[in-house]
Amino acid sequence: MKKRFIGKLEVSPIGMGCMGFSHGYGKIPEKQYSIEAIRKAYAFGCTFFDTAEVYGNELYWEGHNEEILGEAVESFRKNIVIATKLHIHDEEVTPNMDLYHLIKSHLEKSLKRLRTDYVDLYYLHRVNEFVPVEDVAYVMGKLIDEGLIKGWGLSQVDVDTLDKAHRVTPVTAVQNLYNILERDCDDEIFPYCIEKNIGVVPFSPIASGFLSGKITAKTEFEKVDDVRKFVPQLTKENIEGNQPIVNILQNYAKKKKATPAQISLAWMLKKYPNVVPIPGSKNQERIIENLSAWDIELTDEEFYELQSALDKCEIYGHRGIVETQQKIFSNHWKK
């Protein structure tokens, strides 16, 4: 396993998205199972763990996910990189607000839940249309100077927003939606980030499980707290339309003695040097399977053949990367 860099942060080439332990994929596991899953991932070699202050659901509280991660990693915290995310609530935005103290108060609560005195990577979860991103960038710079965070990032943004922020305080990472079915970042985000030494951290790199080949048009998602019901590619019609892509991945999986999910991650790692995907799962076996993709290396010939085959496929369903806080949360998204 060769380590990668997100800005100056050294991490395993694949990280772990922890959201599923608190929210998003139906019934959550027992707390001890989740803690054990995180510790097994670390023992396997994962050194990059992603959470957010809002990860919870109707049954659990804001900060639930941070608390689980904090307890799980406390004994080896100094050996890993922790990323969490700031959500500025609309009701907190007032004409006379002190943005520095507002953001710092959020961070301090996250630090307490994570059982640490610093966060390696602190994202703005979504751009709030009423808070200039340049102002957030300035505050993040002050928090870096104070040693409370090592770097900062943005999630679900286009290159214009990224550039505005980067000009104020250099951005460490962009966490955008990116996978074989969602490749908007190819156009401008990756070129900009490579030029500026910014890491790209794709969430949903296996397209909410679709690229694993385990989801079919007959798949029934859980009725309560399952974001997959809102994923454009996971309507029955789009699942059927995108099946040729899964077939291609399955063919390569057989050749490489891997799984389709691992091939989709290996494709991503081969494509860009600054990419560190964070697949999320609440299943311990799937977590280790996903991390194992860092041992699967596509040759140049295999990559170009795979890329060529994928480029010939029409993609059905599109979510995109430009999402403001108002849009994303009004539509029940939290990732």
Automatic annotation (TrEMBL):
Q: Which UniProt keywords apply?
A: Oxidoreductase
Q: Does this UniProt record's set of keywords contain Nucleus?
A: no
InterPro entries tied to this protein: Aldo-Keto_reductase (IPR050791), NAD(P)_OxRdtase_dom_sf (IPR036812), NADP_OxRdtase_dom (IPR023210)
* Pfam families in the record: Aldo_ket_red
Q: Which domain of life is it from?
A: Bacteria
The NADP-dependent oxidoreductase domain is annotated at 13-309
Q: Which GO terms describe its cellular component?
A: cytoplasm
Please provide, alphabetically and separated by semicolons, the GO molecular function terms listed in this UniProt record: oxidoreductase activity
Q: Entry's PANTHER family?
A: AFLATOXIN B1 ALDEHYDE REDUCTASE, ALDO-KETO REDUCTASE
Q: What is this protein called?
A: Aldo/keto reductase
Tell me the lineage of the source organism.
Bacteria, Bacillati, Bacillota, Erysipelotrichia, Erysipelotrichales
